[in-house]
Design goal:
Length: about 475
């Protein structure tokens, strides 16, 4: 057997060790992991005032009760009378918290069988009525109308020769007939024209639909309502008003259109709630999906070249994901350096700029050690600084545009047929940020005011 001398063996070993030391490996991909949401999700209450002008209600009733509103042509139906009542003036309303008072001016023609002769005459009367109303658990409006009094404008003269009938008797017979006709007709008209349950149900269902509030940034608003109630009805400044209060967990999503869970959007039972404010302050959970964030960053970074003297690199691709409370940025480079480099940064709320910053963007330890051995020139700040600026862009500058587009939507958003939500967004501020498996999550606070006005009741009737 041939012997190997000690010097030759040591020389061979040294070459092997040095060769191993000079041999480099690519940086290791950081492990993907996520912490639980560190912030408590808040329930927001959206107060939506609803106002209906008393004048609009009067117009609707006057439209429904035109001409002859009651006619009895049967003398033999037990009252010995034939009556025709024709509206001769506008109905006037007054409204309390649980009932409507109104007067109907009527012109009368009366024919009465006095037994030995038939009496005829004309007159005019104001019939005073009251409609009690309530809202059932299924959001249907229930009413009960009754006659509470009358006032003669022109007393009827029923005479033939020396025979006449007392006015009080005529009024009692007349009003008894009205009780089972005009009152039922009023309740029927209110039920027909105020289909409250269908309007609320349609608005509730629509509240689950994603609203594209900022098309340029694929930003969707999800109201995610959970409870709904209404304050007692009141009358102020010539308007009937109430406030719909919706408890929700709204979210903004930047990315693809969110899916809707149809099983969760059944209308809750009606309930009264205490008085609320006319404005709103909503905490909204917003999410920026990693794919969408990647798309926005790639628009500004992929294809960009960075020169370092005689060397240069080009950005080929970017991937974003989370590791605990840090965002991992995986960048694929070509040129003087071929391969992937990993950086991390922590998303934090910047109160001064009202934005989310990626703080302390750094190369991972493994990436930094690798670059120190093979491409230390890449550690200079040019590439890293540009990446950091573009990571902050879509979390900062776009908020102004999103705010303006939400404000534009609130100028007039149709939630049901001929029912419009109008309002104004005063503030949109960021508060918290954290990472989830699918997205960068942030918490937004919206301040503003909205209301619903149903001011085209007559138009609603015309469209039927």
């Amino acid at each position: 057997m041939k012997k190997v001398s000690i010097p030759v063996f040591l020389l061979t070993l040294a070459v092997f060790v040095l060769g191993s030391a000079c041999k480099t490996t690519k940086p290791t991909r950081p492990m993907e992991q996520y912490d639980e949401n560190p912030f408590e999700e808040q329930i927001s209450t959206l107060n939506i005032p609803i106002k209906v002008g008393v004048e609009e209600l009067e117009n609707m009733l006057n439209k429904q009760f035109e001409g002859v509103v009651y006619e009895d042509n049967d003398m033999d139906d037990g009252d010995d009378m034939m009556v025709k009542a024709e509206k001769q003036g506008d109905i006037k309303l007054s409204i309390d918290s649980s009932f409507i008072m109104y007067k109907i001016p009527l012109k009368l023609w009366i024919k009465y069988d006095a037994g030995f002769t038939t009496l005829q005459g004309e007159g005019a009367i104001n019939v005073e009525m009251k409609t009690l109303f309530d809202i059932a658990k299924d959001w249907n409006l229930s009413t009960q109308t009754e006659i509470v009094g009358h006032e003669w404008i022109e007393q009827p003269k029923l005479k033939m020769g020396v025979v006449s009938l007392p006015v009080g008797t005529v009024a009692n017979l007349l009003l008894n007939n009205f009780k089972s006709t005009i009152t039922e007709k009023i309740d029927e008209q209110i039920k027909e024209n105020f289909k409250m349950s269908s309007v609320i149900a349609e608005a509730w269902e629509n509240a689950f639909q994603p609203v594209l509030v900022a098309p340029d940034f694929n930003t969707w608003l999800m109201i995610n309502p959970e409870k709904i109630g209404m304050t007692p009805i009141r009358t102020t400044d010539g308007k009937i008003s109430t406030t719909i209060a919706i408890q929700s967990r709204p979210r903004l999503k930047i990315g693809g259109k969110p899916t809707v869970d149809k099983a969760a959007n059944s209308l809750p039972p009606f309930q009264y709630v205490r008085e609320t404010k006319d404005d709103f302050e909503i905490q909204i959970g917003a999410e920026i999906g990693y794919k969408e964030a990647e798309r926005l960053v790639k628009e500004n970074m992929v294809g960009e070249q960075f020169d370092y003297g005689k060397r240069s690199i080009k950005v080929e691709d970017i991937e974003l994901y989370g590791q605990g409370n840090k965002l991992v940025i995986n960048t694929k480079l070509s040129g003087s350096y071929e391969g992937n480099i990993f950086l991390t940064g922590k998303p934090e709320y910047n109160a001064r700029h009202n934005a989310i910053d990626i703080k302390s963007l750094k190369y991972t330890v493994d990436s930094r050690n690798f670059l120190l051995r093979s491409a230390a020139w890449l550690l200079k700040g040019k590439f890293k600084n540009s990446l950091e600026e573009n990571l902050n862009f879509y979390l900062d500058d776009n908020l102004t545009e999103i705010k303006e587009q939400i404000r534009e939507q609130l100028k007039g958003y149709q939630i049901a047929d001929n029912v419009m939500l109008k309002g104004d967004l005063r503030e949109l501020n960021l508060s918290n940020a954290y990472l989830s498996p699918d997205a960068i999550q942030v918490s937004l606070k919206l301040d503003g005011q909205v209301e619903i006005e149903m001011s085209e009741l007559t138009k609603l009737e015309e469209e039927k």
